[in-house]
Design goal:
The protein is α+β, with helices and mostly antiparallel strands and 451 residues long. The chain has helices at residues 2-62, 65-75, 139-144, 152-157, and strands at 86-90, 93-95, 108-110, 113-117, 128-129, 175-180, 186-191, 196-201, 205-210, 215-220, 227-231, 235-239, 245-250, 253-259, 263-270, 276-282, 295-299, 305-309, 322-327, 333-337, 342-346, 352-356, 370-375, 381-385, 390-394, 400-405, 414-419, 425-429, 442-446. The protein folds into 2 domains: 2-158, no CATH class; 175-446, TolB, C-terminal domain (Neuraminidase), CATH 2.120.10.30.
């Protein structure tokens, strides 16, 4: 009998340690992750409100009455500032088991629940358990439903786990063209119409290629180009390496249109107003240890500076080493800062809308390495992540939608990207293979991935 009692005690301890405690730990992790996601959404909404407040203050200080009228009508971007769901937490409960059965002596656990209910207590709404979410209704049916009855939080939690086809994307993106460039390493690419792109790499020139890889034109430069853009599908404007100047090339002639002493110009883009935006990284100071920060400058075609973007309203530097820039359809300025490893989105008033840091699983991914950026016709932001072989797709506010292209789709070390008017994605790969066996860097073209 004593031996049998010791055996029962041993089995009971094993049941308590390996079964019930394990289930409790799993419940705790699941509940904590759901609360963290909810907290993240609340912080995003709070940040959006702060941005709108700061933007309104700047508009009041600097705008004319007519501008204020237009700003009140079109200026602020408010998506859905109402948080539609809150939750009640139910602790796990213990149900006593039948003591006549050894395996049920300690009983079983009922799972914890996070129940979502509307803030407005007067509104009738059916309570839904998050752990038992209903299936998503078809797109056509969801459009007909009242948006107030949809769950903002549940849709946000689904982003990371929903297959790409359910997000409005093809499961198998198509590479419609692939060709070698004249360079062993590619750094920049810009679309110029008629299935043609300008590319530059580790050489003192810029080359015009068609979609088959045929070389159409070569423009020689004094130094390795750090950035360029194409305006009106034919005029090439580029930063001339470490010379501190921006030049325009028309046919065989070149003309300096902008000079900024003490800084290297990097990427350039043309704004909706017709002005140019250029990333500038100051030279390292020789007589001081002061850490100088980069800036983005907007100038007109005569080289006159219209504005400098370098500090926020609290006089804190916005950038450290801004190397890639583009302007979105809503006039937001999107900048890839390689030093701090962030994509920084500013609205038209210079207020920081978001700082995107990759949202990567650091156990399986390399550190976020943002490089080239561009936007599509919908205002989404596409960002090359070189070390992880990703093309991130973000919404206008700089929040991740999905990784639209990965190594599975055939991209390797994407350094620069551009999106043409048909929303095809042109990817310039760095090609970091050892120099002794290095081949030509490739350009790959992917069709529009949206359904």
């Amino acid at each position: 009998m004593k031996k049998q009692g010791e055996l029962c005690k041993k089995n009971a301890n094993a049941l308590l340690k390996e079964n019930l405690k394990k289930k409790l730990n799993e419940m705790e992790k699941t509940d904590a992750s759901q609360v963290e996601e909810y907290d993240k959404i609340l912080k995003e909404k709070l940040n959006e409100l702060k941005v709108n407040i700061e933007t309104s203050e700047v508009a009041l200080e600097k705008s004319t009455p007519l501008d204020l009228i237009l700003f009140c009508k079109y200026g602020l971007q408010v998506s859905d500032t109402k948080i539609k769901d809150t939750f009640n937490f139910t602790n796990p409960s213990f149900k006593e088991g039948d003591v006549t059965l050894i395996e049920k002596i300690f009983g079983t656990l009922t799972p914890s629940k996070v129940e979502w209910k509307p803030f407005n207590k007067g509104r009738k709404s059916q309570t839904t358990t998050l752990m038992q979410r209903p299936k998503t209704a078809p797109v056509k049916q969801r459009k007909k439903e009242n948006l107030e009855d949809s769950s903002f939080l549940r849709q946000s939690l689904d982003i990371a786990t929903t297959p790409r086809s359910q997000k409005g994307f093809n499961d198998l993106p198509g590479c419609i063209a692939e060709f070698d460039s004249p360079y062993s390493m590619l750094f920049h690419i810009s679309y110029c119409g008629q299935d043609q792109v300008y590319v530059s790499g580790n050489g003192k020139n810029i080359t015009l290629l068609d979609i088959r890889g045929k070389k159409l034109k070569t423009i020689n430069t004094d130094r390795e180009v750090l950035g360029f853009t194409v305006v009106y599908n034919q005029i090439l404007i580029y930063s001339d390496g470490n010379a501190g100047v921006v030049e325009v090339a028309i046919d065989k002639s070149r003309k300096t249109i902008f000079t900024y002493l003490g800084a290297d110009p990097w990427d350039i883009c043309c704004s909706k107003s017709g002005n140019l935006l250029v990333c500038l990284i100051p030279y390292s100071s020789l007589d001081t240890t002061e850490d100088k920060c980069g800036l983005v400058v907007e100038f007109d075609r005569t080289g006159t500076i219209k504005r400098e973007i370098n500090y926020d309203r609290q006089k804190n530097p916005i950038y450290r080493e801004p190397k890639f820039v583009c302007e979105n359809t809503n006039k937001d300025v999107c900048v890839s800062d390689c030093s701090v490893r962030k994509l920084i989105v500013l609205n038209a008033f210079g207020i920081v809308r978001n700082r995107y840091g990759g949202q990567l699983d650091m156990k399986t991914c390399s550190p976020f390495s943002p490089r080239g950026i561009d936007t599509d016709c919908r205002g989404n932001i596409l960002l090359a992540d070189k070390d992880n072989n990703f093309i991130h797709l973000l919404n206008q506010k700089g929040h991740l939608i999905t990784n639209i292209l990965t190594v599975v789709d055939g991209i390797t070390k994407p350094w620069s990207i551009c999106v043409d008017p048909d929303d095809r994605i042109w990817v310039a790969e760095e090609n970091d293979t050892p120099q002794e066996v290095r081949t030509k860097a490739k350009v790959k073209v992917f069709n529009d991935l949206r359904l």
